Amino acid sequence: MKTSSYTGRFAPSPTGLLHAGSLVAALASWLDARAHQGRWLVRIEDVDAPRCIPGAGQAILRQLATCQLLPDEEPAWQSRRGALYARALAQLERAGLAYPCSCTRKDIASWHAARGHAPVRGQALPYPGLCRPERGGPRAQAPCAWRLHTLRCEQKAPAEPNARAFMVNGVLHWHDRRLGAQQQSVSDAVGDFILRRADGLWAYQLAVVVDDAAQGITHVVRGADLADNTPRQILLQSALGAPTPLYLHTPLVLAANGEKLSKQNHAAPLDLSSPMRALNAAAQALGLPAHNTDDADSIPGALAAWVRAWRQMDWAAT
């Protein structure tokens, strides 16, 4: 029997098929939902249409079904939810928490270079608020993106230490069920991040926050490569008056060269000629015992055993 107090989700992007790392995240989120007798949803995050591969979303759903990871509702598709994102952006604009910006990446890089700020490999340069309303608005007559005014959001965020996430002297604090206490000043580390791109496409950060709120997501279980998105999403949740879920970021699966498996790094799609073998590998990456057979008929029994084992993990109580 499933309860209404827990709703989790797996939210893959159809820029390619699931790989071994993706299955770890999918299995972890499914196990956490089942261990809490909760609901498990699947959301296809196809908001960045130019990067999505035709047919990949349906193929991902088939991969999950082959592994017997079945959602409790029909999958949601971000590409069909633009009206929700538009309403959220309008809400932020009315509150003075979102503004148009004409800056390009070159503009931002030039601003930092002029001040001797060297870029860090793998990290975007923080946006310094050049188009903020108090600084005169957009700097050029060009198609504008929309950005979140992080400094104003931080000033409005809760400061109560008993809240799920709270602000102290401009630093956001929250707790990850596996990683422990976390903190970041979003305005310093990231700056005013994009909500809607200049080409009209919705940005991931806005879409995921709006969707999690609309679907009643209470627990987010995903790979540790997405942990650095969490403070931005919490700040945006606060700005929209949306609840903050509990977060758990799972260990990453690394390639032989030490880099994380990802579609950007051309990770091979899952080999599901033996789905039990693929599930065993994912379970072991999560610290769960391997099942003793590769027979697909044994998948239900293996999943049930892993749910029981998951309840014994350190983070299971939350």
TrEMBL record:
Binds 1 zinc ion per subunit. A motif ('KMSKS' region) lies at residues 260-264. Its cofactor is Zn(2+). Its EC number is 6.1.1.-. Keywords: Aminoacyl-tRNA synthetase, ATP-binding, Ligase, Metal-binding, Nucleotide-binding, Protein biosynthesis, Zinc. GO terms for cellular component: cytosol. A motif ('HIGH' region) lies at residues 12-22. ATP binds at residue 263. Residues 9-110, 187-267 form the Glutamyl/glutaminyl-tRNA synthetase class Ib catalytic domain. It comes from the Bacteria. InterPro entries: Glu-Q_tRNA(Asp)_Synthase, Glu/Gln-tRNA-synth, Glu/Gln-tRNA-synth_Ib_cat-dom, GluQ/Sye, Rossmann-like_a/b/a_fold. Transmembrane segments: none annotated. L-glutamate binds at residues 9-13, 45, 204, 222. HAMAP family: Glu_Q_tRNA_synth. NCBIfam families: PRK05710.1-2, PRK05710.1-3, PRK05710.1-4, queuosine_YadB. Belongs to the class-I aminoacyl-tRNA synthetase family. GluQ subfamily. This is Glutamyl-Q tRNA(Asp) synthetase. It comes from Ottowia cancrivicina. The lineage of its organism: Bacteria, Pseudomonadati, Pseudomonadota, Betaproteobacteria, Burkholderiales.
